[in-house]
Specification:
Length: 18
């Protein structure tokens, strides 16, 4: 898992990123 901001945890489903 890349070092992404906490906000990306919920947006990951929309982005399609695990």
């Amino acid at each position: 898992m890349p070092s992404l901001p906490p906000k990306h945890t919920w947006v990951n489903t929309d982005e399609g990123v695990e």
